[in-house]
Each structure stands twice: as structure tokens, then as C-alpha cells.
Design a protein that fits this description.
Order of helices and strands: HH
Radius of gyration: 12 Å
Biased composition (Basic and acidic residues): 29-52
Oligomer: single chain
Low-confidence stretches: none
Helix content: 10-25%
Shape: flat
Distance between the termini: 33 Å
Keywords: mRNA processing, mRNA splicing, Nucleus, RNA-binding
GO molecular function, one term: RNA cap binding
Mean pLDDT: 74
Largest sheet: none
GO biological process, one term: mRNA cis splicing, via spliceosome
Subcellular location: Nucleus
Length: 52
């Protein structure tokens, strides 16, 4: 845990050099693109929800 949050690590079988710093459409983590719950520590709602 770090700052009261679980740390998650996923193996990236499709790793390509130059794409290791975020894979979502908006440059962040894919999981943050689709987050439906408000999380002030991670920028509020997910980017997909903010664009609506």
C-alpha cells in the first residue's frame, strides 16, 4: 500500500518502446479513462465521463 491505496501492477504483453508512460487516449492509465466514481486524488471522474 502507498498513501492508503493498493498498488496494482499488470504485465504488459504488448509493450512497445516509447509507449510505457500511459496507454489511455488522454495519455494516462486506461483504468483512469473509464473510472465512474469520483476520486479527487486521481483527478475526479474518469476522462471519458469528463468529456460528456
Amino acid at each position: 500500500m502507498l498513501d492508503g491505496r493498493m498498488i496494482r501492477v499488470d504485465y504488459d504483453a504488448g509493450f512497445v518502446e516509447g509507449r510505457q508512460y500511459g496507454r489511455g487516449k488522454h495519455g494516462g492509465q486506461v483504468r483512469d479513462e473509464y473510472r465512474e466514481q469520483y476520486d479527487p486524488d486521481r483527478g475526479g471522474f474518469g476522462k471519458i465521463w469528463q468529456d460528456r
